[in-house]
């Protein structure tokens, strides 16, 4: 069994700005939603049977209380923000497990889902569909990997070491030192990726650094590490079988009509019929 975990927020951004290149005058009101649904359907058509999608139901999280500069919804295009909730509802009506996050972030949901799924011995592989470097901390050997659809790239543990110079478990420490502009924290001044990797490979986690390495910057580094560390305790499901796609609900026909894309329903029903034939 392979479990597929999709970063719905990333996919929504990707489709929104991809469409904008072709619609200079006006953004289609549900264009990005439709794009994400087709992406998920393509995954199902290609054999994904167990699939879950995480979204940021609100952009802010508990991390905003820890660091005032942490990312917010400020500056996010209103036309894009308006498609988050419709995406969640449309995915649910399509029969896909969806996790709209509020206090936690979509990345936390993906990390939690990967942790939960890894406890099931029947799960052979877990694919986290996002290029976000935060999720590299969840990679474990070749069993839990990151998949970048746009670049057609799979990042396993060896890939994480090759790209960042550290083991996956050290990614929160690495990001704490070098910073993450996308999330809004700067890291420790004067420490770049090469220096950070060298320090972590020499001393281990930040908590084990000799006092002289960071000096009075240690507390700041530990704060950034807390921001970079993904939560794995979100109770998203009890059994991996809850992620099994069993076809659309009766409500999906209305959603396909509202989105103005009859092909969505056609593809969904065809995929569902194919799935029924396979599982008989």
From TrEMBL:
Gene3D superfamilies: 5' to 3' exonuclease, C-terminal subdomain (1.10.150.20), 5'-nuclease (3.40.50.1010). GO terms for biological process: DNA replication, Okazaki fragment processing. GO terms for molecular function: 5'-3' exonuclease activity; 5'-flap endonuclease activity; DNA binding. Keywords: DNA-binding, Endonuclease, Hydrolase, Nuclease. SUPFAM superfamilies: 5' to 3' exonuclease, C-terminal subdomain, PIN domain-like. Pfam families: 5_3_exonuc, 5_3_exonuc_N. Residues 1-246 form the 5'-3' exonuclease domain. PANTHER family: 5'-3' EXONUCLEASE FAMILY PROTEIN, FLAP ENDONUCLEASE XNI. This is 5'-3' exonuclease.
């Amino acid at each position: 069994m392979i479990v597929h975990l999709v970063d719905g927020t990333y996919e929504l951004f990707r489709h929104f700005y991809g469409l904008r290149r072709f619609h200079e005058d006006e953004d289609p009101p549900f264009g990005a939603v439709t794009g994400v649904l087709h992406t998920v359907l393509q995954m199902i058509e290609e054999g994904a049977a167990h699939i879950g999608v995480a979204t940021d139901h609100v952009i802010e999280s508990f991390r905003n209380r820890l660091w005032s500069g942490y990312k917010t919804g400020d500056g996010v295009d209103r036309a894009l923000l308006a498609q988050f909730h419709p995406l969640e509802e449309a995915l649910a009506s399509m029969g896909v497990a969806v996790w709209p996050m509020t206090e936690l972030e979509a990345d936390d949901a993906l990390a939690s889902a990967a942790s939960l799924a890894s406890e099931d011995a029947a799960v052979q592989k877990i694919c986290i569909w996002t290029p976000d470097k935060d999720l590299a901390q969840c990679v474990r050997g070749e069993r839990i990997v990151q998949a970048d659809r746009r670049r057609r790239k799979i990042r396993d543990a060896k890939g994480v070491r090759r790209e960042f110079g550290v083991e996956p478990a050290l990614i929160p420490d690495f990001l704490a030192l070098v910073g993450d502009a996308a999330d809004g924290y700067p890291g420790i001044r004067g420490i770049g990726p090469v220096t950070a990797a060298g320090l972590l490979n020499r001393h281990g986690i930040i908590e084990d650094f000799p006092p002289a390495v960071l000096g009075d910057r240690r507390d700041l580094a530990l704060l950034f590490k807390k921001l970079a560390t993904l939560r794995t305790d979100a109770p998203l499901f009890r059994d991996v079988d809850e992620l099994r796609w069993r076809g659309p609900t009766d409500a999906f026909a209305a959603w396909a009509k509202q989105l103005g894309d009859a092909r969505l329903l056609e593809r969904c029903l065809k995929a569902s019929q194919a799935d029924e034939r396979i599982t008989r």
